[in-house]
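Form 7-S
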Amino acid sequence: MPRVKPSVKLLQYTSNPEQTVALAAKLCYSDATIDDLGGGLNEENTAKFIKRLMSMGHQSPIEHVSFVFGIEGVSRAFLAQVTRHRIASFSVKSQRYVSAAENFNYIIPPAIQELGEDAVKKFEEQMETMRSWYADWQQALGGKNEKSNEDARFVLPNASETKMVMTMNARELLHFFSLRCCYRAQWEIREVAWQMLKLVSQVAPNLFEKAGPNCIGSGCTEGVKSCGRQAEVRKMKDGLNK
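Output:
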């Protein structure tokens, strides 16, 4: 039963994302025809236009840009969190159609790994116990088929590994990053969020220049629950594309 780590790939994204946003925003402030909107939009003035747009807080035009991510090596606990972001689309590996009897991957939390080899071994033994429970119920319910899997899976833990394809538009991504890049976010979704932020910053640097937890652009909004690590977070953001 192999242990796995979160991994994110940017599979697809809207072609020329920043120019797409600039075209949509330009329409709001110009009486130009659709055919004429792109006139004069080169890389330099598109960047200036995007930065001005973001400073104004005019975010509806950035909804026209979408990003598609492939995410794997994450737990079902992660799935429960990420699907709370409802302005997104998800395709997830099914526990109904994919049997866990032989290929049961799982996530070991870093805090458990830090306890040492004995703790990791204990965790692995517990995972094997649950896998065997699953296999027993699968067999009792009729063998390896979707009807058996859908009830046998009830004994599987939140640690069970899953994978997904997820699509978000740029505006929702900004909201996602503001919550999930924060140190107060759970470690797994925070790690995925920072990987996602690095990927989108490479293809749309002006759109995501100030993306991240709220302490990136202003002050922490967590009040008495602040992590107190704002300087560290800003350093992480500065180092994304280095």
